Every structure is written in structure tokens, then in C-alpha cells.
């Protein structure tokens, strides 16, 4: 787990000073406190006061938000209309302020700087990438899509487990580095994992499907970083670790549905799913049927 210095209290204190008199419609943080998310609905014409970020900040305007504004991020200044769907990034230590006129919806993401540097080093071999303040109206895929997944995970209590949450956080950081770093970012070369190490990881997963698996635990098995693990596992198997684990959990659920009399909730727990609805969702995605229908069909065939 991360030793993140980003805490809910710290971000809340900063937001209460920079966005006074407004309570977020939704607020939450990643399982390891490395990311903080706040949604604001219909925030009236106001001002984000001048402040110096202690963390990287990402701002996503609501789809229907169009309003004149003045924005300053470090040396970057603009007085163009805010448009729905725009993404704005402000690195830590850069001064930041924003004025606008009409009610707007927006999401604020705060990212821990140490985690960002750690991922930059592992992914691109450069922990000191220079990030610049910048607005993007286009070419923002997959930032918003990842944030929507992260929001859902936080709201539901991380039903897909720590490993999935961490993978989504890492994907967001990598997308930010790709979009907002001055230097061109290129992947560092990695050594392929041997077949024996891949099998060691897969065997460990099989033996712990009912547990909350983490990237850190799997990486320790083969003595590599968790970021190296994600890339090398997909390179070797053609699938991500998260997708592999979900697939194996669904296969185990199929066996239990055929061979036993456990109810769906018990099977979900034995297979490492958050609850029965979580099992139902992934089971249907992979098999095109529900666990109940699968069991009934198997019973009819015997």
C-alpha cells in the first residue's frame, strides 16, 4: 500500500479555502489515499481563490457547462469560455486561480505527487518529468473514462478489490503523464518474465482467488516492481492481471454452481467477489448468462 501524504483532511482543508461555501455533491478517495475526487453540482458563479497546489490537480467540466471565465495556472492565463467536457491540469507547486459567471458542474481530482513520480520512474524511466499547466478540449481519451470508473469504485466501496483500484489509478496517472509532460514520454524497455515466473503468479492467484489480491503481493513473488509486473504479465499472456483474475473467479464460480448447493451469495464470497451483484455482473459479461440461469441449465442437462 502507498505511503501517500495525500489525506482526505488535507484536500478538504485546501478545498474549503479555495472553494468556500460549497459542499461537494460527492467526495471520496482511493483505497490507498493516493487520489481524491470531488464532484460539484451547479456551483454558482464564483472564484477558486489563488493558491499553490500541494498536489497535482485535474479539473473536468460537466458536459453542459459553458460560462465565461478567467483562469491562471502558473504562467498560463486564459479568458476563454469554459466548455463542457474540457479537462484542465495544474501541477503541484503552480499557482492556480479561476473566476467564472454562471453555475457549472465540475469534478476535481487531486493526485499525490510521490505516487506520480513513482509511476513515471517505473513506466518511463524518469521520475522528474516536468508537468505543465494545460487545458484540453479534445484528445482527452481515456482520462474521463478512467475517472468515471474510479468514481464508481469509490462510491461502491471498491467492489473489484484493491488491485483493480490501483490499476485504474495507475492508468489515470499514465494518461496524465502522456498528455501534460513537456518531455516526450516513451516506455522503458522491460525484461520478459520467464514462463516459470508467469506460472508462479498464476498459481498464486488460483490459490488466493477468495482473497483481496494486490499488485504489491504479486510483484513480491517474482521480485519486480508492480508497474513492471502489469506490463510484463500482459506482454506474456495477452491479458491484464485484473482481467485474468476476474476470468479465473468466474471459472471457479461455474464449477461451484455445477458441483455444489451453495447459494449465489456464498459462491460470490468463495470466489473473491464483493457480493452477489458483483458476481452477477462479471459472470454475465463473460458467459452471456447469469449464475442462476447457468445453474438451472446445467441441472436440466443432467
UniProtKB/TrEMBL annotation:
Record SUPFAM superfamilies: Homeodomain-like
Keywords assigned by UniProt, alphabetized: DNA-binding, Transcription, Transcription regulation
Pfam families: HTH_18
Gene Ontology MF terms in the entry: DNA-binding transcription factor activity; sequence-specific DNA binding
Keyword Transcription in record: yes
Domain HTH araC/xylS-type stretches: 199-297
Cited PANTHER family: ARAC SUBFAMILY, HTH-TYPE TRANSCRIPTIONAL ACTIVATOR RHAS-RELATED
Protein name: AraC family transcriptional regulator
